[in-house]
């Protein structure tokens, strides 16, 4: 999926197409899918999920006071079935911090989606002026190693 003016790619048919207008109108930023729900942040910085079964956007409840508003620059990934959000935040005057939150998400049985922030913290600090950096993506990477 693209960030805006959405397009989708169907690997089975190897075709690109435009997304339906209800989906396209609701999202902003880097999105990901967890348990069939497409999560992203909306135009006022709240995390929302699009349920493809009902064609409805739903605000993720339960995380409102535990996370900042994501107005730009946040990226999301499905890591082991959890919603992981990574974003930049100004640290002190001399550094930029990369923050990460891991969120357990689920449908609440009443048609909504709820989240529980399992942890949220700075994971890396980058000195200002050393490099011009920006978050581009977030990936679930698993490495296994067997000693010879």
UniProtKB/TrEMBL annotation:
Protein name according to UniProt: FKB95-like N-terminal Kelch domain-containing protein
Pfam families, sorted: Kelch_FKB95 (PF25210)
InterPro entries linked: F-box/kelch-repeat_ARATH, Kelch-typ_b-propeller, Kelch_FKB95
Organism per entry: Salix koriyanagi
Domain (FKB95-like N-terminal Kelch): residue spans on this chain: 3-123
């Amino acid at each position: 999926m693209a960030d805006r003016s959405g397009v989708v790619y169907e690997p089975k048919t190897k075709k690109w197409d435009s997304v339906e207008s209800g989906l396209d109108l609701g999202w902003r930023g880097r999105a990901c899918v967890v348990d069939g729900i497409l999560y992203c942040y909306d135009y006022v910085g709240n995390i929302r999920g699009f349920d493809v079964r009902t064609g409805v956007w739903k605000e993720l409840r339960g995380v409102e006071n535990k996370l900042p508003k994501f107005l730009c620059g946040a990226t999301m990934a499905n890591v082991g079935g959890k919603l992981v959000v990574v974003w930049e935040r100004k640290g002190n005057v001399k550094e930029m911090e990369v923050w990460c939150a891991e969120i357990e998400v689920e449908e609440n049985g009443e048609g909504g989606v709820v989240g529980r922030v399992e942890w949220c913290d700075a994971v890396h600090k980058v000195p200002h002026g050393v490099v011009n950096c920006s978050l581009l993506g977030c990936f679930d990477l698993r490495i296994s190693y067997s000693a010879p």
